[in-house]
Amino acid sequence: MESEHEPRLRSVVSYVQRGGRMTVGQQRAWERQWADIGRRVADLPPGPIDFAGWFGRPAPVLLEIGSGMGETTAQLAAAEPEVNYVAVEVYEAGLGQLMLRAERLGLENLRLLHGDAVIALKEHIEPDSLSGVRIFFPDPWPKKRHHKRRLVQPDFVKLVASRLAPGGILHMATDWEHYAEQMLEVCSAEPALRNRFDDWAPRPSWRPVTKFEHRADQEGRISRDLIFERVG
Question: Which residues are listed for S-adenosyl-L-methionine binding in this entry (predicted)?
């Protein structure tokens, strides 16, 4: 959640504030699991997170920004048990639902951060430490006057690139054509990143189709993936 002190720390936040309360099931999942697998970004002590200590093992750390209701996140974490999978999301009900999904799947390699991913990246994640960052279907801010609010901007991409280990992957997906073009332009201009493809990446078969992507397809919007690699 945003405090009166946070706005001066960044120009673009990683989320849109949403309303809505948790369901009884989500609240119970939160009460059962949050103390073990969740932390609030605003409550983190100064300095980098000790991911190996938090997960109880050293392993590649993959950060997903904006896990929503966890539909994709839970499946991806389940498919990669060898990865320390970290999801950051501001929407409490979404994290509650993700915990329900994680519980059903018996996930042990998932940890959750509640709050702004930009602050987490800047203040609590070491440079050159992440094996990957995933940003799937961020808020598109489709109106032209709102494009400046989009997450994928030059300063943000530079920050993400600095936190990736050499060879680490930034994988993005969006169903908004103009946002996809902006992502491609911004990431191509970042010298620390290299596009693994000429432009769009083939849609990975392992990325689950969410209800939002299915709706976009029904509405005639094409989903595009972009996969960039940290160089140097």
Answer: 64, 89, 116, 139
Token couple for 77: 């974490």
Supply the DSSP string of 4-41, one letter for each residue: TTGGGG-SS-S------PPPHHHHHHHHHHHHHHEEEG
DSSP E strand stretches across 19-125: 38-40, 61-65, 84-89, 110-114
* 171 CB neighbour count, 10 Å cutoff: 20
Marked catalytic residue, from 36, 50, 128, 139: 139
Tens-digit pLDDT profile for residues 127-183? 999 999 999 999 887 888 878 889 999 999 999 999 999 999 999 999 999 999 999
pTM of the model: 0.90
pLDDT digits (tens, 9 = 90+) for 78-109: 999 999 999 999 999 999 999 999 999 999 99
Ligand-binding annotation for 211, yes or no, is: yes
To the question of whether residue 36 is assigned a binding role by annotation, the answer is no
Is there a binding annotation on residue 89? yes
CA gyration radius for the chain? 17
d(CA 100, CA 74): 9
210 is in an annotated binding site: yes
Does residue 86 contact residue 54 with C-beta atoms inside 8 Å?
Answer: no
